[in-house]
Automatic annotation (TrEMBL):
This is Transcription elongation factor GreA. Necessary for efficient RNA polymerase transcription elongation past template-encoded arresting sites. The arresting sites in DNA have the property of trapping a certain fraction of elongating RNA polymerases that pass through, resulting in locked ternary complexes. Cleavage of the nascent transcript by cleavage factors such as GreA or GreB allows the resumption of elongation from the new 3'terminus. GreA releases sequences of 2 to 3 nucleotides. Keywords: DNA-binding, Elongation factor, Protein biosynthesis, Transcription, Transcription regulation. It holds the Pfam family GreA_GreB_N. InterPro entries: GreA/GreB_C_sf (IPR036953), TF_GreA/GreB_CS (IPR018151), Tscrpt_elong_fac_GreA (IPR006359), Tscrpt_elong_fac_GreA/B (IPR028624), Tscrpt_elong_fac_GreA/B_C (IPR001437), Tscrpt_elong_fac_GreA/B_fam (IPR023459), Tscrpt_elong_fac_GreA/B_N (IPR022691), Tscrpt_elong_fac_GreA/B_N_sf (IPR036805). It comes from the Bacteria. PROSITE patterns: GREAB_1 (PS00829), GREAB_2 (PS00830). The gene is greA. Belongs to the GreA/GreB family. Gene3D superfamilies: Transcription elongation factor, GreA/GreB, C-terminal domain, Transcription elongation factor, GreA/GreB, N-terminal domain. GO terms for molecular function: translation elongation factor activity. Residues 83-156 form the Transcription elongation factor GreA/GreB C-terminal domain.
């Protein structure tokens, strides 16, 4: 059985999405299907077919979320003593050794990853290179553009 590591925030966000899909989206789609069905001939009823297709996608997402929640391993980084090592859930400040560009990333589960918000999946090449390393370590990350060296400046449990 596959386990899905998640931060507390990621777990709560999935629970919130699940509740929204069950309590708001699912009933609305049922109403839409009923209204489209009332229009008559279902063979050529685009509204009906679109609503049914949407319903299938929503039901698949609900099942996916339920599976992930059931098989989740919630990690509350705030309860883990700080050691200076990069762990799942930590926020890491790193510097590109060549360009001196400083970036900050929060290492999260796949469902939570959003590069624009500085959240990277623990399975990404960068996070994989950083995990288990410590402040002051230099890591080499293989990217499509070549190898990039980063120095770990700071690791936070926030």
């Amino acid at each position: 059985m596959i386990k899905y590591p998640m931060t507390v925030e990621g777990f709560n966000a999935l629970k919130k999405e699940h509740a929204y899909l069950i309590k708001v989206v699912r009933p609305k789609l049922s109403q839409d299907i009923g209204a489209a069905r009332a229009l008559g001939d279902l063979k050529e009823n685009a509204e009906y077919h679109a609503a049914r297709e949407q319903q299938g996608m929503v039901e698949a997402r609900i099942r996916n979320i339920e599976g992930r929640l059931h098989n989740s391993v919630v990690i509350d980084i705030k309860t883990i003593p700080k050691t200076g090592k990069v762990l799942f859930g930590t926020t890491v400040k790193i510097i590109n050794v060549k360009t001196d560009e400083i970036v900050v990333y929060h290492i999260v589960g796949e469902d939570e990853a959003d590069f624009k918000l500085g959240k990277i999946s623990s399975s990404s090449p960068l996070a994989s290179a950083l995990i288990a390393r410590a402040e002051g370590d230099v890591v080499v990350v293989k990217t499509p553009g070549g190898l990039i060296e980063y120095e770990i400046i700071e690791v936070n449990h926030i």
